[in-house]
TrEMBL record:
Major facilitator superfamily (MFS) profile domain residues: 8-381
Segments passing through the bilayer: 12-33, 39-61, 97-115, 135-155, 161-181, 202-220, 240-263, 275-300, 306-324, 331-351, 357-380
Protein name per the record: MFS transporter
Organism: Nonomuraea diastatica
Location relative to the cell: Cell membrane
Keywords carried by this UniProt record: Cell membrane, Membrane, Transmembrane, Transmembrane helix, Transport
One GO MF term attached to the UniProt entry: transmembrane transporter activity
UniProt membrane topology term: Multi-pass membrane protein
Lineage, broadest ranks: Bacteria, Bacillati, Actinomycetota, Actinomycetes, Streptosporangiales
Amino acid sequence: MVGGLPRPFWALWGGTLVNRLGTMVVPFTGVYLTQSRGLSLAAAGLVMGVYGAGSLLSQLLAGVLTDRIGRRATLSGGMVATAVSMLALGYSSTLPAILVSMFALGLVIDVYRPASTALVADLVSPSERPRAYGLLFWGINLGYAIGMTSGGRLAELGFVWLFWIDAVSCVVFAALVWRAVPETRPEARESAGGFGVVLRDRVMVGFTLVVLGHALVYGQTMTMLPVAMTEVVKLSPGQFGLAMALNGVLIVLVQPLVSGWLGRRDASRTFATGLAVMGLGFAMTAFVTSTLGLAVTIAVWTAGEIITAGVPGAVVAALAPAHLRGRYSGLFGFAWSMAAVLAPLIGGPLLELGSKALWFTIGGVGAMSALGMLALGPAIRRR
């Protein structure tokens, strides 16, 4: 045990960090498709849409596999498949080949998430789960911040470097989990069936809707926020990037200091508080006119992000029977994949109506999600 958490958890954490350090392809996919492969914006949009379709199926498929073939096999197999898909995309030169590779990548790149969530639930005691999930969240953000910085520089040397580094990091993650993390899946006879049993759990379905609201709010950071700040507020990409760097800095510095304390609070009230703070931060974005103003709003919604960090995984673990943790985690992940598709579809038309229409609506979604979580609180506490 290290710091109250078992050694296999730290192997999982280390593998996640390595994998996020190598996460360089997806953030630069649009640039790669248009600059390196010469695709039009419409063709690039089609490719990203196909990726999203694969991602939607990914979480449900991974949830079933996690319960049927095991956590370790699903995670390691998903990472190896991701490495293969990465390299296939990197060497695809025609639109049909790129479409097939991107669909495959969307299908396998996040297969590890339900397996990882189930592994933490299996390995870590209930009292320590919020801290464990918070530490995973922190490691993902730390690795991603470094990976993004390195990826931008490597892209200038040639995009093929990004694909190889990403693929190697996936294989390292797979090998580390295969060697250092035991299989924790209950007996296979208990895992028969599909998602029907999960969908009949009204508390889990309600929580999934809350998570969808949470993900729709957060999804604006990667969809409409950059557009609104550069096109409407007229900040330069450099100014926007400088302000957004505050998000990563605050998470890396503050998250480890508060995760233990937050983990001892009531999960429902903590999550509701974080959602409300996030909603407030995004609603404040309607009044941004400068880089400093943007930084203030980012600090507010990042505080909400930190508050919510370790809670959802712990709630899913509390709601799910042990033999169905993969499926429950898959439904949770599906909400995030769905939000990735819906966030730009909802945000784009709202931004055309005006900044206030977009950001007040997003703030309202955060507030409604917080109220929904408070309503679910008694049922979650009974579990």
